[in-house]
Design a protein that fits this description.
alpha+beta, 11 strands, four-stranded antiparallel sheet, rod-shaped
Amino acid sequence: MNSLFLRIFLWFWLAMVVLGVLLVVTSPFFTQSRSRVDRWQQGAESWAQGRVNRAAQRIEEFGVGSFQAREPRGHGGRRGSEIFVFDKNVRELQDRVTPEPVTDLARRVISNGSEEAVRRGGMHMVARPVVDPEGRLLVIVGTLHRPPRPIDLLEPKALWWRLALLALVVGALSLWLARYLSAPVGALRRATLRLSAGDLSARVGKPVNRRRDEIGQLAHDFDAMAGRLENLVGSQRRLLRDVSHELRSPLARLTVALQLARDRQGPRAAEALDRIERETGRLDDLIGQLLLLERLEARAPDTEAVDFDLTALLNEVVDDASFEASATQRAVEVEAVSSCPIRGYPALIRSALDNVLRNAVRHTAEETTVEVSIDCGKASAEITIRDYGPGVPEEHLETLFEPFSRVADARERSTGGAGLGLAIARRAIEVHDGSVTARNHADGGFEVAVTLPMTVPLL
């Protein structure tokens, strides 16, 4: 029972049903019109009547001193039963303290001269007048304290439909109450999931914010936090985009100046100019990657989704990587199916696969082969790329696809790029609602699995 709504509903429902059952079951105790209550009352009165009649017979024959007020339990007496004898002045002849209801009953019987039986809660009282051998008018009052048993209070024919109606009404009230308490939590959870998935515009919304309780305050605080995060991340992205664009102009001028310098170079300047050209190219490539990453973060591809063959695209990427790998005594092999039709953005998927595959070629051991395979299913396609390099420490696996992430032993700046390739790969796959997972292979090396749905979602 992990649902807060279900737990709130059941607890309220059960609590209110139990309370209702207690009220329904005990209500006959306060009435005198139910058949089982009548039988319970008549049974108690009949027993008290028998005691009073026996006491009256003894008094009529032998006088007041011939009976016991409390009969022993072994002689037919019951716990909580007593016999009181009053004279015409309503004085108890044995000088015992009498309950007020008993005294009132004796006074009425002396006044009207007839036998009477009454009940006060769980106490049953029977009184009758009697004349002793001396000719005195006396009143005998027998009492029996006998609360009703549960069976005495139940009336099945009248009980079941009332319990069913009560359960229905209480259930509807509990349903409304549980929904009132749990619905805001559900809205907050959905907004949290959207925010964690990268949707910085996620908000709980006004219906929950307008609440005056702690949940409304929590929703208000969440929306304020989400707004602050959106502003911060937006500012960061704008800064990254603006700086990247601004760097493009001086880079273009630097390239022109480099070409002019080559035209005027002396014999000693060639090596320095070549170095400047390489660094300029790397800087231009870095800026291009930053701009691409910014577009992917915003989920804004430059082209429309089209249908294409994923297997053919993978083979092209593998061919390019194989050509580069052969120069470093490494190889790339692919185990591909005949075709894998898919819908998406070919340029983005090509960039993602190229970044992952180049990373594998860069870190696999010399004279080893990077293994690539593709499994095309009905709902999704999975591409697996495995190298035979040193792998990645487990503590770095979760941050491996973050921008500018580096692993000291495997991705030094001298051998790797700027730490953007795998980040771009993950963002490109996430644009397709796919996933990228990385793990150290059990038999050594490193493995990356790319999963793509067969149809790209509408953006």
